[in-house]
Amino acid sequence: METEKQLLTAILNGNQQAMRQLYERYCGYAMTVALRYIPDRDAVQDVLQDSFVKAFSAIQRFKYRGEGSLKAWLMRIVANQSLTYLRENQRLQLTNDLIDVPDDEQENEVDTRQLPIDVLLKMIQQLPDGYRTVFNLFVFEQKSHQEIAHTLGIKENSSASQFFRAKNMLARMINDYKRKSNL
């Protein structure tokens, strides 16, 4: 199957091979999304399984909006399943610990262009659960702090505070990596 539309049509017609192709095509992307929220690979495998089961169960209701819309829909399911996992396993703890970051690092944007993507992903995984979750929702899912607050059941200023702290902690990790790597 070449396009998402063809793949979707085959799946809607009950083609099991098309379901397998969909899984194989997007499993890597889904893994990356889940790993942004959950650093434990075993837990991520469970989340991916639940995500694809949920997607295949709901695919009849999916509204195709052009190439890429199926992938985007699947990745939203993965992100939501990751959040569900965090809530159900009481891993979604917001922290009020202050991060000791010098003022000059707080105000400067950090250049990540020379940073290998796997290194950046590992840094994001090292953030405390609350920081990491808010950071991912804000940066990758492009949710507003109001939407994040509603999704997580927190106050809007708590979301903004967690994001600010996550960003500063990540900036410190990136700057440390650059100094050690002479970038």
Structure characterization notes:
The protein has 2 domains: 4-89, RNA polymerase sigma factor, region 2, helix turn helix motif (Rna Polymerase Sigma Factor, Chain: A, Orthogonal Bundle); 117-181, Arc Repressor Mutant, subunit A, CATH 1.10.10.10. Mean pLDDT is 88; it is low at 97-107. The protein contains 9 helices and no strands. The chain is mainly alpha-helical and 183 residues long. 27% of the residues are buried.
Q: Short summary of the structure?
A:
With 183 residues, this protein is mostly helical.
Short key terms for the protein model shown above:
mainly alpha; Arc Repressor Mutant, subunit A; 183 residues; single chain; Rna Polymerase Sigma Factor, Chain: A
Which descriptor suits the 3D outline? globular
Main structural class: mainly alpha
The beta-strand count equals 0
Order of helices and strands: HHHHHHHHH
What's the total helix number? 9
Task: Report low-confidence residues grouped into runs of 5 or more.
Answer: 97-107
Kindly report the CATH topology of the largest domain.
Rna Polymerase Sigma Factor, Chain: A
Q: Indicate the CATH architecture of the largest domain.
A: Orthogonal Bundle
